[in-house]
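Subgroup meeting minutes
Present: P.N., E.W., G.H.
Scribe: E.W.

1. P.N. recapped why we're keeping a running log of single-chain structure predictions: easier to compare across weeks, and new members can see raw inputs and outputs side by side.
2. G.H. added today's entry (188 aa).
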Amino acid sequence: MTVAKNDLVVGVVLIALAVVYWLGADTIPKSLLEGGIGADALPKMLGVALGILSLLLVLQSALGPRSKAGDGTEKAAPRHGIGGHKYALGMLCIGVGYVALVETIGYALGIAYLLAAVVLLVGGASRRIVIAFAVIGAVLFWAFFVGVLEIRQPKGFWPDLWNSMQAAPSQAQSALTLSSAHPATPAS
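Output recorded in log:
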């Protein structure tokens, strides 16, 4: 099979996947508490994006220019093994890491990790730029989704840690207050 036919088949399969993804997102239950944008909005947008990009792949493979060999047949692209897919594999690992961590460390740190990991994967930036990009990006994403769109995001273990740190000093303070209010009477 030629490269154009491979792209055509993959594009059609991805269009079908986009439709299935949209239908799956449409089954997400609606909440009476959510505003104008529900939990199904992002998956539906991703389904639409997948469908549009897949359609562009189909159109490119059907209408795009063909590179011809000397005998008039199409040339197949050279295969490079796993090395040709290192960025895709890296992005997959970063995405899996984000999904695994976001509930534990919270959205803000999770998105900072995601942004930093992608920049480090692509390369070309100093550590200071990577850290600044991750922190500023995480703040902006959090402000947009939580502040503007009012979509609750995972908080992680931070609220529990903060509450336990706040409770510990107040318990120690109350123990000091009780001991000073009732001094021990010497035994006679």
